[in-house]
Design goal:
Blueprint lengths: L2 H26 L12 H9 L4 H24 L9 H28 L9 H6 L4 H24 L2 H7 L5 H35 L7 H12 L1 H23 L7
Length: 256
């Protein structure tokens, strides 16, 4: 990857990490009696918009996430990881594009908010779930999220992401920080994805509409297993954000 593409990819990774950091922090604040609420990506953008220089922050996050979209698409079409030309290889490359589109859409939303547009009262998810085939879409999404949860747990405990870090020419202190943040972060993401899968399965089989996001997963955790567990998962999400920010910092860490 040439230097310009590498810089864009790292900017995008940092923006993604900041979003996850804010989601984790904003969700943890209520437990500490400091305000805030269980948050998703849209809540995070709203929080940024309310800060001093909020418009500037939204523009920076927006363009950075679009840079991440570019990197993911380039990663897929240039086949940077040399995936085989089989079903598994094409599925992995398609997942890179999908990941980029998710954060690219979030970046577009941030820019739309920054320039005075509304992010909308009804999300795309809500519209899909309330459509004629909403229950089928919900079940398909739930199956995809189940696979994502399995993948996140695999990343956390198989040691796959550790190879990236261990092969990088960085200090032992930085390496340990990355490894710990990554393991905690991937575990938390797996838990959230599993809960979201449950919520989408529930919506699909009950033919119920409405919006479903990370905030719902945090609220379910708090209501069913208690605030302490919910807080631990929120801290884990923040740890994943830290992992992405740190990963973007070290040029010798494999970006693929």
């Amino acid at each position: 990857m040439n230097s310009k593409k590498a810089i864009l990819s790292r900017i995008g990774m940092m923006a993604k990490g900041i979003v996850y950091l804010l989601i984790g922090i904003l969700t943890t604040l209520p437990i500490l009696g400091m305000g805030g609420k269980a948050s998703g990506s849209k809540d995070t953008l709203t929080f940024l918009a309310q800060q001093p220089f909020g418009k500037v922050l939204l523009i920076l996050i927006g363009f950075s996430l679009l840079a991440y979209l570019f990197f993911r698409c380039y990663q897929a079409f240039a086949n940077l990881k040399n995936h085989k030309k089989d079903a598994k290889g094409y599925a992995m490359r398609a997942s890179y594009v999908f990941s980029g589109l998710v954060y690219g859409f979030l970046g577009f939303t941030a820019l739309k908010m920054a320039f005075g547009g509304s992010s909308g009262n009804s999300s795309s998810v809500s519209k899909l779930l309330n459509s004629e085939y909403g229950h089928i879409i919900a079940i398909i999404v739930a199956i995809g999220l189940t696979g994502k949860a399995i993948y996140e747990f695999h990343m956390a405990y198989s040691g796959k992401f550790k190879d990236e870090v261990n092969h990088a020419n960085i200090s032992s202190k930085a390496r340990n920080l990355l490894l710990n943040a990554g393991k905690i972060g991937f575990t938390a993401r797996g838990i959230v994805a599993a809960i979201l899968a449950f919520l989408f399965f529930k919506a699909g089989f009950k033919h119920s509409g409405g919006d479903i996001n990370r905030a719902d997963a945090f609220n379910l955790l708090q209501n069913e297993v208690g605030a302490i567990v919910m807080t631990l998962v929120a801290v884990g999400i923040a740890a994943y954000g830290m992992f992405m920010v740190l990963k973007s910092k070290y040029p010798n860490v494999n970006l693929q």
